[in-house]
Amino acid sequence: MSIEIQFGQLRSLVLSPSFSNWRMLCGVLDRYEDQWGRGEMAESVLPYLRHHIERWPTSVRRYATHTWLHRAMLGREVKQLEFATAIHFVGHQTTTKGLELLFQATNLERVTHVDMRKAEVCDASVLRTLLDNPVIARLESLTLRSATLRRLPQSIRHELASRELTLGTA
Fold it and tell me: Nearest CA to 84 among 114, 104, 117, 116?
């Protein structure tokens, strides 16, 4: 099925903000990823989606999918990340290098929430990469394991405390 045929479905999904509609949109974005740079997708669909998704209430967190995170941690470009507002690691096999690659991505400007409680690895270099990425300037909350926070160097703990973000632990 072409993106032109799917556009009506996309329109109804994007005009009714909800978590379930977000998940369905993720599927459509993935299905037509190979068309992002050309034709109807580039000229009409993506601009339309960007315009309307940006108006969704912040209460509807748009979580990056497991697939997107996995691919980004392998160093691949994941264009769909531009629409995500939250990253939550659940059952992901993480490495320091993979998380650094993810947090170096240049299309994370809408991400406001990162939950790393279940990330297998979360060390000072990962958090340094996260904090140094200028596109994550809108980060509002970061959740870590309390043990992770205690092991961090004082400089990073101080920087985390000095930012206007909610720092949660579990």
Answer: 114
pTM, full prediction? 0.85
Q: Are 70 and 92 in contact (CB under 8 A)?
A: yes
Q: Contacts from 146-149 at CB under 8 Å and sequence distance 24+?
A: 146/170, 148/116, 148/122, 148/123
How far CA 140 is from CA of 22, 37, 92, 110, 135, in Å, comes to 21, 31, 22, 11, 13
Residues 115 and 87: beta-carbon distance below 8 Å:
yes
69-77: which pairs have CB atoms within 8 A and are 24 or more residues apart? 69/102, 72/101, 72/102, 72/105, 73/98, 73/99, 73/101, 73/102, 74/98, 74/101, 75/101
Cα dihedral 92, 96, 102, 108, rounded to 10, equals 100
Interaxial angle between packed helices 96-103 and 66-73, expressed in degrees from 0 to 180 and rounded to the nearest 10:
100
Partner residues linked to 115 by β-bridges: 88, 143
Per residue in 113-153, pLDDT (tens digit) is 999 888 877 788 888 898 888 877 788 988 888 777 788 88
